[in-house]
User: What shape does this take?
Amino acid sequence: MTNTLPAWSTLQTHYEQIRDERLRDWFASANDTAPTRAERFTFAGGGLAADLSKNRITDATLKLLAQLARESGVEARRDAMFAGEIVNPTEGRAALHTALRATEPDAPFHAQVLAERAKMASFADAVRSGAWTGYTGKRIRHVVNIGIGGSDLGPKMVVHALKHLATPDITSHFVSNVDGADLWRVIEHIDPEETLAIIVSKTFTTLETMTNARSMRAWFVRNGCPESELAKHFVGVSANPAEVVKFGIAPDNVFEMWDWVGGRYSLWSAVGLSIMIAIGPQQFDELLAGAHDMDRHFRDAPLERNLPVLLGMIGIWYRNFFGSQSYLVAPYSEALHYLPSYLQQLEMESNGKSARLDGHLVDYPTAAVTWGEPGTNGQHAFFQMLHQGPTIVPIDFIAVLTPEHPLGDHHPKLLANCFAQSEALMLGRTEEEARKVAGPDKPELVPHLMFPGNRPTTTLLVDALNARTLGALIALYEHKVLVQAAVWNINPFDQWGVELGKILGKVVEADLTAAPGDVKQHDSSTAALIARARDALKHEGASGS
Ligand code: F6P
Assistant: This one.
């Protein structure tokens, strides 16, 4: 069991020794002699840099965390994943997202991966050049990606992040929610003659995706597209090609992914077709190359200087020793707007578990609540709580050093805010300092002007946001999740926790429209909610007829 490992109890003792130490004191110039904390705790890998110096760590902490990673078998878990072993035992599968970006000819499934990517590239080129046309001969101007979870969040995040590299001829849309408003808000503004739908679903059975796909098909037909011409407007991406063809998508328009690619790790596969159409095959290769840079760093760098290991272990430090409940990702980049929601799935669907690999339940916390919002927006919303609330929330700041737009003085302001926030969170404001700010006339303000400080942050630095650095950034977080899974001794590649709600959802859906005598028994709360909805739906039906 993890917490009986020697490094775990040494870390516990170490935590008790340093938990009251203050970052402010460690950074005070007399204590911070060469090499400085910034020098000692800034690490590079895969083209990215991470400044860990504003974390509540000493050299000894990092040594012990690396030792815990070693004792937890991080290296063995990593090597097994790269080698294609069954690292997802509850589903009997490998997890080979790294093979999707490997360049080594002996990488697992290499020929298969290259063949599917070549098929994607020729299709993407045809759509981008205008050679691929809709049923009236018009070129494609709108691509609608229909998928949910891993079949949506990754492509949506990347297409948004790399908008500055995307073709201006095509607008990308992402529809995921079974709430019809999601699809409606897209299709009411676009012309079916110029629209391509990409239906993405690993299983091709997901309720939301299949409902949206059917409504999309009906929309094409309703708007004049003959059934026989639908092939010009529909492609499918799935690990279940038979089901795609059954849905009515032409076999030539089916792009394959495989069961050894997890949904939330799949943007590197044909699931990324919308990305490739937006930025082109060459830039897609750059995205893969960036991820591969990080894969190599993760595989080769010593644990003590290994970015995914360091990020993962810092997370363990706060979650399991400081008892932090949540952790914030704050990209100071509008381009990375969707990174926090992408990471929510990656971190919480992967590691939000209680059963260990050996079937016993954990007696320690696993995945923290992951949340976030781009800076500077968050500063004007929830940063109050980060600075003065009683709860410590560790933060990953992400700063992009050069902008991807030409707008004059915005960027220095953006970066200044990012760096100043981590400085303020670290320094805080003492009672004495608050007294000076309050002035002699307002002593009652002193408690309100005090900041506890000592709030830990990591700052990730990206020189410029491009396909390569973005690929590395995503892979960094993918591997961080594996590192934490190894320490928690859990399987990050399954997601049984989503099943129960799906099963009960089908029963409730039937109950919403069943004859009164056929509604199933539920607890009084669920029964009352169903009754209210049955009433509302009846009225909606009445007014619609
Ligand atoms: O229900 C959760 C989940 O299975 C995710 O793991 C997955 O990314 C998402 O649903 C979509 O699944 P699919 O790609 O099979 O439609």
In short: The chain has 20 helices and eleven strands.
